[in-house]
Amino acid sequence: MLMNLEFYILHSTFCILTDNLQPHNLQPLKSLMPDNKVFTPEMTADGSFTFFCSEIGESYHSRQGAIEEAQVKFVKPCQLAQKAQQPVLRLLDICYGLGYNTAAALGEIWTQNPHCHVQLVALELDSTVPQAAIAQGWLNHFRDPIPQLLEALATTGLVETEQFQAQLYLGDARETIQQVQQGNFQADAIFLDPFSPPNCPQLWTLEFIQHLAQCCSDTGRLATYSCAAAVRIALITAGFTIGSTIEVGNRQPGTIASFTEANLPSLSIREQEHLQTRAAVPYRDPNLSDSASGILHRRRLEQQNSLLEPTSHWKKRWLRVDS
């Protein structure tokens, strides 16, 4: 029973309790994935930890602050503080990873309304990373029962309590999203958090984003850290209206999308012009089955034949404006 409990993040959202999380106690993790990617723990600027994937060449979260990124790029743009007043709130977490985005969301929702019932669908390729984050205690700065709930989710893939119902789908998100869609799940908030488009184009394609749009409620919001023109055009083509989110550290702004324009931050003139360049040629994967190299090759060919302005011209023009 989860009755009469207060849920909040201890000592503000970004204050991380790291007494038992010293870097010298952490060892690289070998994934259960067939290619045995190695994940190396890293401390970020706000004191929280993330993993660095050496094969991909990217961290799971911003080194400027993993928890800060979860809040600024996902929780706040999706207006979860306001939506928490609903009796039921539905979350769709794409590339669940360490679980930070979901943990931060639960912390915000239950701080605002301890009685809100949260339904979560999370997609992740492999259970190794969320299990390792739990084992290292990286979610322990969130008040109970968030760590316990997410530990159960990472371990069993399914959690159901009075206030929390969650399912973790493992495998290629291009396949599992179709299962979610067939179940008529309608999310109030979607977190789109794969590795970057050049390294993981499979989850940034027009076709994949169209499936996400089918899983978003009429009043729902989709948030992502990416501001890539190709991603933004795919969102627009899928029926979303888009806006910018604020930067985290040295990272560029993210993107927030919804089916209405209400309260969306406007794109700058520079960002609007970026959508008119060849950078805006979307990634495509017609059958949701192509390799990363195949998707990238298809896009390069389309860019070469595009009548859109070369992106280099746009960059030079704005360099002159900035100088």
TrEMBL record:
InterPro entries recorded: MnmC-like_methylTransf (IPR008471), SAM-dependent_MTases_sf (IPR029063)
GO molecular function, one term: oxidoreductase activity, acting on the CH-NH group of donors
Family matches, as Pfam families: Methyltransf_30 (PF05430)
Domain of life per record: Bacteria
Residue ranges of domain MnmC-like methyltransferase in the record: 158-258
UniProt-recorded name of the protein: MnmC-like methyltransferase domain-containing protein
Source organism of the structure: Moorena producens 3L
